[in-house]
Amino acid sequence: MNRREFISLLGGAAAAWPLAARAQQPARVKRIGLMGNLQLRPIESFRNRLREFGYIEGQNLIVEYRFAEGREERYSDFAAELVALPVDLIVTWGTPAAFAAKRATTTIPIVLGGIGDVINTGLVSNLARPDANITGFIALNVELEEKRLELLKEVVPSLSRVAVLGNSSNPLNRINLETAHRAAQKLSVAIEGFEVRSSEEVRSALRALVEARPDAALLASDTLLLGERRQIVDAMATSKIPAIYPFREYAEAGGFVAYGANISILFERAADYVDRILKGERPGNLPVQQATAFEIIVNQRAAAGLGLTLPASVLVRADEVIE
After folding, report:
1. Is residue 15 classed as helix, strand or coil in its secondary structure?
2. Who has the most CB within 10 Å: 91, 102, 104, 276?
3. Rounded-to-integer distance, Cα 67 and Cα 39, Å
């Protein structure tokens, strides 16, 4: 090999080295934030779905978890922390978390893993073409309030007075209560509201609710209340008040009947959106979608404790019966 050939070969190899080095570099690790009240089953469903897309926590994915644990005032600080890191995307569960994320950023994509309503609360102005950095999935909890009352009337035929326990710090609470009042009028049922603003107020609200001696109770769709489900379910059982709940976790904790969207499926679908956004799609081009999978879970043990027999018409529609 002559000198000219050697220099030419060396130059070609040198030019190839940067390309080879770039090809061998691992893809940039993605970092996402996740805000909610507690780490429950839907969060695990979300993580499992992400693994199916090839996102492995600790390898090519970092998830910054922020759980309020009943202190919803923490969401604003959580959102600010996630924006400052920064994360590539924020996933939220519940209305207070979603609003905190929206206030914190107009550029980082926000995916709603599960939320009761977005139009009536003003979070998003258009489902088909959502606000620039927000998209996700709706549990349709407002629309389901009427169906929950109808189901409650079916299992408690003598129903005339219903207590509604809600969280006044949740922007969805007023809309839920208005919907419950309209539904109650159709069923000739009276509604009495009992509200909390924090988890510390749940005990006193339950005491007032029990003292009011309603025929039954309706629990608002709210993640703060969900975090207090054991004391809520215990209070209803001790006072013999039949209650209908929006999330399956209540029935699993001993609650009478739960009826609502399957939140785990919503979070699986949210993982699909996360994958698409991390690969370059704009959240504003992904429509906010409504829940399509709903579940009725009845607890026979709770029914027996209340001295009630669930009608066959309800049992046959139940997706799960806890014996």
Report:
1. helix
2. 91
3. 7
What is the tens place of the pLDDT at every residue in 5-46? 444 544 554 444 444 443 444 578 999 999 999 999 999 999
Bridge partners, residue 190, by sequence: 161
The values of phi and psi at residue 120, to 5°, are: -65, -30
Q: What 3-state DSSP class applies to 57?
A: strand
Check whether domain 141-261+295-322 has CATH 3.40.50.620, yes or no:
no
Whole-number pLDDT of residue 23: 41
- What confidence category does residue 225 fall into, taking pLDDT thresholds of 50, 70 and 90? very high
Q: Provide the pairing of β-strand 257-261 with 294-299.
A: antiparallel
Q: Tell me, what amino acid is at 283? A: P
Domain ranges of the chain: 30-140+262-293, 141-261+295-322
Residue 89 dihedral angles phi and psi, to the nearest 5°: -170, 150
Residue 155 has phi, psi (to 5 degrees) of -90, -20
141-261+295-322 matches 30-140+262-293 in CATH topology: yes
Q: What are phi and psi of 57, to 5 degrees?
A: -60, 135
CATH of domain 30-140+262-293: 3.40.50.2300
